[in-house]
Amino acid sequence: MTRHFNFCAGPAALPQPVLERARDELLDYQGRGLSVMEMSHRSAEFVAIAEQAERDLRELLAIPDNYRVLFTQGGATLQFASVPYNLLGRGGSANFLHTGIWGKKAIAEARHLFGAAPVVASSEANGHSAVPRQADIALSDDAAYLHYTANETIGGIEFDYVPQAVRPDGTEVPLVCDMSSSILSGPLDVSRFGVIYAGAQKNIGPAGLTLVIVRDDLLDQACAEMPSLMGYKAQAEAGSMVNTPATYGWYLAGLVFQWLKHDIGGLAAMDALNARKAEKLYAAIDGSGFYSNPIAPLNRSRMNVPFVLADDRLDKAFLAESERAGLLNLKGHRSVGGMRASLYNAVPEAAVDALIDFMADFERRNG
Ligand code: PMP
């Protein structure tokens, strides 16, 4: 068996110890004589798995008691609709910061469902290479919440600060964040947010599971006509079991949380490791004269590092040779081209070292 280094943007690499444990427990979960996939979600065994996962996540992120954690489905994309449905029941508009493709999709969905959804600051003018600063953000008078994307997975642009969401009249409104591609990459002050959501398939677990963290005072402002499965309150009251949850993904997420706690040593340690990985790769890109990344240093994503070659006619050879060298999934998103190395939690530092060595060698031969 050979496992290569996987730089996929998502579904992304999972920690090897997690996969090994899942393999060991696949046919017979802890002597119960069946797989987690074959258990009733209401069985004592599965409820214990689910509760342990939530406890570990709460501990990792120091989630305050007045927040509910939901393990749902539909991906971050369904949250583009669920958030306005759950938060606009008392009127007002969704306000957005626009820093790239995923934020744009969230804006489009809010507009599709609710009409107006003002963009109150944008990085469009600089080609999404630097996020708006706090002083550039001017919420609308009727803002019900402010939504932003902490890390734009395709553009490779990441917020270096948590924005404040204050209306012109001084009222603070909930801050909503799509953290699909940066959650668990380091410590987080959850108390700054009204809603945090993330598709699982980057730093949490396999695709098919969606995490929502919602402050409990926001559970009572949903639109009446919302599909019932999308309701945060209903899911919170049902322990995320309004219908059959993504049980196996939930279990794997729990194993990832255990790995973060016990193998990595928590999110501060993860943060330091991620900083080191990203700094190395950006330093190699900046030092080369052959590779380049357009993002302002302050907003360079630690999770997704897009870069282009000096001559895009070499892209094909770069991809073919990197794959032969055991460096998988370096092709950039189809909308931007070039390359992208995603350095999520489960991508080891050795993978980054191997990539940097390959890039230097490729440059020597082609530069
Ligand atoms: N938001 C961000 C930041 C993402 O990276 C992605 C997926 N790459 C999405 C939303 C959409 O997620 P999903 O496919 O889980 O709906």
From TrEMBL:
Highest taxon in the source lineage: Bacteria
Residue ranges of domain Aminotransferase class V in the record: 5-355
Details of cofactor binding: Binds 1 pyridoxal phosphate per subunit.
EC identifiers of the protein: 2.6.1.52
Matches recorded under Pfam families: Aminotran_5
Reactions catalysed according to its record: 4-(phosphooxy)-L-threonine + 2-oxoglutarate = (R)-3-hydroxy-2-oxo-4-phosphooxybutanoate + L-glutamate; O-phospho-L-serine + 2-oxoglutarate = 3-phosphooxypyruvate + L-glutamate
The UniProt record lists the keyword Secreted: no
Binding site for L-glutamate: 42
Sites bearing N6-(pyridoxal phosphate)lysine, chain numbering: 202
Pathway terms, separated by semicolons: Cofactor biosynthesis; pyridoxine 5'-phosphate biosynthesis; pyridoxine 5'-phosphate from D-erythrose 4-phosphate: step 3/5; Amino-acid biosynthesis; L-serine biosynthesis; L-serine from 3-phospho-D-glycerate: step 2/3
Binding residues for pyridoxal 5'-phosphate: 76-77, 102, 153, 178, 201, 243-244
Entry-linked Gene3D superfamilies: Aspartate Aminotransferase, domain 1, Type I PLP-dependent aspartate aminotransferase-like (Major domain)
PROSITE patterns linked to this entry: AA_TRANSFER_CLASS_5
InterPro entries associated with the record: Aminotrans_V_dom, Aminotrans_V_PyrdxlP_BS, Pser_aminoTfrase, PyrdxlP-dep_Trfase, PyrdxlP-dep_Trfase_major, PyrdxlP-dep_Trfase_small
Subunit structure: Homodimer.
Name of the protein described by the UniProt record: Phosphoserine aminotransferase
Organism of provenance: Halomonas salina
